[in-house]
């Protein structure tokens, strides 16, 4: 699994690699010289890699405009410009040194080296940004821009002339490559950013690795496609960094989901219990139950209203159906066979009788410390009765999309603030929050976050969430821990969506297709086919 770093991690690793400028300045001369040499070597390595990436994108004769700031990101940009100058091709370099005294030692050295090696003609050093002193270069859709104004070391919104520069670059429609981070973007999830005041990159070449901000939907248009450069960071600092957030991949899923033994019976594989459906919403019950039957558990029971009997027996004949006798909704919740995987919510409605029954069941499961999967109308009922939050059993999984989350915990102005709130609520209530979205996040009570990497736009279809709920319940039925079941359920769900889309197309994929693709998805994950392998006849 790929690590996701905090801003503090990045700062610590960077400092361990190239030192702290203030501390270096206080060293004795010989140590100071070696430290500056190490910084210069690192900056040169970053610049060379950026230039190599840009050269691979650049078309013959395409003009490249490099914007460099006064900090270390500007030094990276100047080193990249130096390498591109040696490779040839139209080049302009804009260095912002407002007032003439702002350049860091790194940037000043990079500028002097660029000038010494013949770059004076293409370098414009901006000291006075006022009218008549500086004009933005002409740029259009055919221009390639390297954004090295500010990186992750700059943690404030752009102001004044820098805002104007960002807007001008964005309006030019040029292809933009940002070094480290698009200028004006911060990695602080709680900061409200105005996107038009931030440079919009087509490609972001980050250094150590992504932060959680890279996975927020509101930042997708800022980052574009991102790639981690293979620059030589301090190995010990990297090794001793304990990341609490990671990107979940197929290898991670395989490590916690072993193949089924050859000698096994359905009794060994657990039973899932799905409380789902009401009059007019029996499709949700069908989808959740069908997904649970595809999950690998031994048995599945759906508990619903009497009106669902014939529908469920016809649509999911491999599952059992029980009812408490009410005609149109569920009024009594119980788990007489002590199933390990219990899901509540798809299509159950919000009648007073259903809400009362759910309230009683939640309190009994809370007392017994029996985790549940809560989704859809179960979450809507809880949002109507916030006191029920205190009775969600520890380690239960809730699976809200953004709207459901905001109804439960208060309106949020971005996915970043929603993620911070999810961290707080998961720890407060000791529950697992699976926050659905383009990059679904599984937030654990201990503060860990797993980012799902298998998502696809094919999942954006009615009933897809019901499929996920049934799948997670089926995984829990197999005695997979709730924290793990939520994360791998989201991953399998994404793979199933991709498989379904191959046959049905992204626009044509339905929740039924996703449910039916769960089995092939699990098989694909557990038994990856070697590249180039051919299927042999049995």
Overall pLDDT level: 94
| Number of DSSP-assigned strands | 18
Computed CA radius of gyration, to the nearest angstrom = 28 Å
The end-to-end distance, rounded to whole angstroms, is 34 Å
Description:
- With 538 residues, the chain is α/β, with parallel strands linked by helices.
- The chain folds into two domains: 2-242, 3-Layer(aba) Sandwich (Rossmann fold), CATH 3.40.50.10260; 250-526, UDP-N-acetylmuramoyl-L-alanine:D-glutamate ligase (3-Layer(aba) Sandwich), CATH 3.40.1190.
- Helix content is 42%, strand content 13%.
- The chain is built from 19 helices and 18 strands.
- It has helices at residues 7-18, 21-25, 29-57, 72-87, 105-119, 160-172, 220-223, 235-239, 250-256, 282-294, 309-315, 352-368, 376-384, 402-409, 415-429, 464-477, 482-504, 511-516, 518-526; strands at residues 2-4, 64-68, 91-96, 123-126, 144-148, 175-179, 203-206, 225-228, 245-248, 271-275, 299-303, 320-322, 341-344, 373-374, 397-398, 432-435, 441-443, 449-452.
- The chain has an eleven-stranded mixed beta sheet with strand order 1-9-18-17-16-15-14-13-10-11-12, with helices on both faces.
- The chain is elongated.
- The mean pLDDT is 94.
């Amino acid at each position: 699994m790929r690590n996701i770093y905090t801003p503090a991690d990045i700062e610590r690793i960077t400092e361990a690699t190239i030192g702290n400028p203030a501390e270096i300045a206080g060293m004795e001369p010989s140590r100071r010289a070696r430290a500056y040499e190490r910084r210069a070597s690192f900056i040169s390595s970053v610049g060379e890699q950026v230039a190599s990436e840009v050269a691979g994108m650049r078309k013959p004769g395409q003009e490249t405009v490099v914007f460099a700031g006064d900090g270390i990101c500007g030094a990276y940009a100047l080193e990249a410009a130096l390498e591109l100058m040696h490779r040839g091709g139209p080049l302009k370099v804009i260095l912002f040194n407002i007032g003439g005294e702002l350049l860091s030692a790194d940037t000043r050295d990079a500028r002097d080296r660029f000038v010494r090696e013949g770059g004076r003609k293409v370098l414009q050093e901006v000291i006075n940004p006022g009218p008549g002193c500086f004009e933005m270069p002409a740029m259009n859709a055919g221009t390639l821009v390297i954004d090295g104004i500010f990186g992750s070391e700059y943690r404030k919104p752009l102001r004044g002339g820098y805002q104007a520069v960002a807007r001008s670059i964005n309006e030019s429609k040029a292809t933009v490559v940002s070094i480290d981070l698009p200028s004006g973007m911060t990695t602080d999830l709680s900061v409200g950013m105005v996107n038009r005041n931030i440079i919009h990159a087509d490609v972001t070449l980050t250094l150590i690795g992504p932060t959680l901000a890279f996975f927020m939907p509101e930042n997708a248009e800022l980052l574009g496609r991102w790639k981690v450069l293979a620059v030589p960071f301090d190995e010990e600092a990297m090794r001793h960094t304990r990341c609490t957030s990671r990107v979940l991949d197929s290898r991670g899923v395989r490590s916690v989901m072993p193949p089924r033994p050859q000698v096994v019976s359905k009794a060994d594989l657990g039973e899932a219990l799905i409380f789902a459906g009401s009059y007019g919403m029996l499709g949700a019950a069908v989808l959740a139950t069908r997904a649970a039957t595809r999950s690998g558990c031994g048995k599945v029971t759906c508990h619903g209203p009497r009106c669902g009997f014939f529908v469920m027996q016809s649509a999911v004949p491999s599952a059992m159906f029980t009812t408490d006798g009410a005609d149109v909704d569920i009024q009594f919740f119980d788990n007489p066979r002590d199933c390990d995987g219990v899901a509540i919510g798809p299509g159950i409605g919000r009648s007073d009788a259903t809400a009362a029954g759910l309230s009683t069941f939640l309190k009994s499961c809370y007392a017994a410390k029996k985790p549940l999967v809560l989704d859809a109308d179960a979450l809507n009922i809880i949002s109507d009765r916030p006191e029920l939050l205190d009775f969600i059993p520890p380690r239960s999984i809730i699976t809200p999309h953004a709207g459901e989350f905001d109804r439960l915990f208060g309106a949020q102005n971005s996915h970043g603030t929603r993620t911070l709130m999810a961290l707080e609520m998961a720890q407060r209530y000791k529950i697992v929050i699976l926050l659905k979205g383009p990059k679904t996040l599984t937030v654990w009570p201990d503060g860990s976050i797993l980012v799902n990497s298998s998502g696809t736009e094919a999942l954006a279809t009615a009933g897809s969430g019901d499929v996920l709920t049934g799948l997670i319940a089926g995984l829990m039925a197999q005695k997979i821990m709730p924290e793990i079941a939520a994360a791998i359920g989201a991953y399998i769900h994404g793979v199933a969506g991709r498989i379904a889309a191959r046959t049905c197309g992204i626009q044509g994929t339905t929740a039924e297709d996703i449910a039916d693709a769960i089995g092939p998805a699990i098989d694909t994950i557990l038994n990856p086919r070697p590249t180039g392998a051919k299927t042999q006849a049995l």
